[in-house]
Design a protein that fits this description.
Helix content is 30%, strand content 26%. It is α+β, with helices and mostly antiparallel strands.
């Protein structure tokens, strides 16, 4: 084989390997991509029924119901326009409370109930996931700092260093 043909073969092999690597990365990225939807989006059938996604908003007052197994919890997530029923089996974050911000990740069932595999509660009195804050703003209920009062105190206490 001539050196020129050999070089062309190596370049073609390199381009092919690069193409395969890019295809694998794009496939991994696509399968791990999780979109955020508001309860209004879910109620408007904008959320996928066969894929995992995140739903965020506030835990509706009076909606938290614990099953007898103590690990399964049912609640409703609202953006003050629509509310979506959510079920979760597992240990909820300590900061999970009615009227507070939450983001749940899971799948929407054919019965309209969102089955969460993960529940995230806001962790600081000044923090709410940007997507959830934006959704509340669009729904006409801007983020109110008073609804977050006292939640950041536990973390502040835990972060103090003990002095001898």
């Amino acid at each position: 084989m001539k050196p020129r043909t050999k070089r062309a073969a190596w370049i073609a092999a390199g381009v092919a390997a690069l193409g395969v690597a890019v295809a694998l990365v794009m496939n991994a990225f696509q399968s791990n991509l999780v979109f955020f939807f508001t309860p209004s989006d879910v109620a408007g059938n904008k959320a996928p029924r066969d894929r995992t996604f995140r739903i965020g908003g506030l835990v509706e007052e009076g909606s938290v119901k614990r099953n007898s197994d103590a690990l399964t919890v049912a609640f409703r997530v609202t953006d003050s326009v629509q509310a979506i029923p959510v079920t979760f089996t597992g240990i909820l974050p300590d900061l999970f409370k009615e009227g507070k911000g939450v983001v749940a990740q899971g799948k929407l069932g054919t019965d309209g109930i969102f089955r969460a595999s993960e529940v995230l509660a806001k962790h600081d009195e000044n923090y709410m996931p940007p997507e959830a804050a934006e959704a509340l703003q669009r729904a006409g209920r801007p983020m109110d700092k008073s609804s977050f009062a006292g939640q950041g105190q536990m973390h502040a206490k835990d972060n103090r260093s003990a002095k001898p």
